[in-house]
Amino acid sequence: MMSVTIVALFVTSFLSGPVCGAEYDYGAYDPARDAFRPGQFPDGFFWSTATASYQIEGGWNASGKGESIWDRFSHTPGKVQRGDTGDVACDSYNKYQEDVQLMKNLGLRFYRFSLSWTRIFPDGTVAGGVNQDGVDYYNNVINELIANGITPMVTLYHWDLPQALQDRYGGWVSGELVQHFDDYATFAFQTFGDRVKYWITFNEPWVVCTAGYGSGGHAPGIQDSGNSTYLCGHTIIKSHASAWHSYDQTFRSVQGGQVSITLSCGWTEPFDPDLPADVIAADRDLQFQMGWFAHPIYTSQGDYPPAMKDIILQKSLAQGFQESRLPQFTAAEIASISGTYDFFGLNHYSSGIVKDKVSTGQDPNFWTDQDLESTVAPEWPQAASSWLYSVPWGIRRLLRYIKQNYNDPEIYITENGWSEEEADPPILEDTGRLCFYMGYINEVLKAIDLDGVNVRAYTAWSLMDNFEWAEGYTERFGLHSVDFTDPNRPRTPKQSVSFYKDVIANNGFPEGADVTTMVRNMWEECRGGPAGWAAATRANVGLLALSFLVTAMYNFLNM
Ligand code: GBH
After folding, report:
1. Residue tagged active-site, from 67, 204, 420, 443
2. Top mutation candidate among 229, 347, 382, 413 for ligand 1, by most atoms within 8 Å of CB
3. Is 16 exposed, middle or buried (0-12, 13-18, 19+ CB in 10 A)?
């Protein structure tokens, strides 16, 4: 059955290629686009790795910590694969000193981690009182980093909202959270800002709002895609701006740090680049992923992207609503949100191919609001995560897009990485990750050297295997493997540790360095070798169309 399908795919692709005409290059190896480029990063480039509190700390109720929405969610049967929880996770609550030694061994000068709001304010509010043990914990982590020559970059919100704020207000759908977040942020600036100079208010609001308040696949598990998703985005944008202004007014002159937000975005190509509707659809995809938050904050015009405002209004009216389901900012809000950044924090992993597809659905829904259908090229290597494909050139195109559309900001890549499946014994020869990193890091270098993009930092996700949200411990993103069956949670370096270490030590890929030779030797193998490239070059629109069909059938069967 399988082989029949494959033969059918190939026959159809050969036949339909000439008929449909246009060749697409999204899967093919294109030497002009994909060749290795030796060279070094600018002096002082920041090499980093990232983690997040709920994913690594454990100690979920230690020393006065309050319950977060992820504690509640993971303790609810059926929400996380196998019933995995972050109760212990990597036990970094106890093992942070060891973690810092892992970083030191890598030669890292930067580390991005997040604070658990409920470790500091157990019920999320200043009025509810501060938990000194939680403050002490973060003071210890920060001091340990600095003592080892590592600069901390702190995320205030990496998804673990105080459960009390969820219960009291319904979470991010409520504007009441703006002040509570500002209070928490202000406390953090005040308490840690003498030593912490790089702050990120929110990690990936897109994920918070689409998964937490849309699909319900993440905490707090609300399923209300067409309304709550947008309300959530609205509150988060205002909360970010409010915290940025607090820093700007009260702390910047004394502490001299920087505050921004981290947005997630995959790169998107049009299915048929000769079809204007597809080209517009591909851009619309980027507007819904990134522009939703980037346009209000990073453009001088401010407000939500016009493409998003227009289409959601039109859909809302057609569905019988009196006004757009996308909330409106006042003129004063637009003005005070615009420009609330010091750099552009970017999490990037994967790419997609998008086709215009008008939807007339009557149910309000974030996905059908976008009028598009999305797929991938069949040749793209896939990670253990269902959404993650290796498309190194996608990061270069996205970086250039950010430069062109958002005022040429300093870009800090705050996450980029690859997952393999959990295995026994664990996968320590992580060739897939190695190939991913060498490809993506090299494309970042091209973005800097050839496109003049102002990239200042590159951050690998993650320092070590950790709690991968609704996937529990079944997907592994770490440079280090962690044994979650052992109470001591031992960490073991994977092969990519020595690779990343060499890249950092050489500040890239200078001619003559061992790491450069290694990359050259592996470059072909990482792309499936010359045989793989030839096959990829034969791919055409017909095959891509079939992949849409197969994806559609697959989705249908999985419903
Ligand atoms: C990051 O988010 C998180 O910040 C981090 O905590 C996490 O562990 C890490 O990545 C690995 O997952 O449904 O096809 O539209 C992940 C970024 C962006 C992944 C959006 C899923 C949606 C894919 N995510 N993406 S799709």
Report:
1. 204
2. 347
3. middle
Picking from 492, 500, 497, 472, the residue whose alpha carbon sits closest to that of residue 426 is 492
CA of 348 to the centre of ligand 1 (A): 9
Query: Residue type at 131?
Result: N
Q: How far apart are CA 210 and CA 224, in angstroms?
A: 9
Return the H-helix or E-strand segment holding 244: helix 228-246
Sheet of 351-356: strand order equals: 267-270, 351-356, 372-375
Calculate how far, in angstroms, residue 290's C-alpha sits from the geometric centre of ligand 1.
13
Q: Is the CB of 443 under 6 A from ligand 1?
A: no
Structural contact between residues 323 and 302, judged by C-beta atoms closer than 8 angstroms = no
Q: Separation of 239 CA from ligand 1 center, angstroms?
A: 22
DSSP character at residue 301: S
- Please confirm, yes or no, whether 415 is among the known catalytic residues: yes
pLDDT tens-digit profile of 503-543? 999 999 999 999 999 999 999 889 876 555 545 444 445 55
| Interatomic CA distance for residues 74 and 472, integer angstroms | 9
Q: Which two tokens stand for residue 30?
A: 């294109």
Token output for 70: 């992820």
pLDDT tens digits, 31-47: 999 999 999 999 999 99
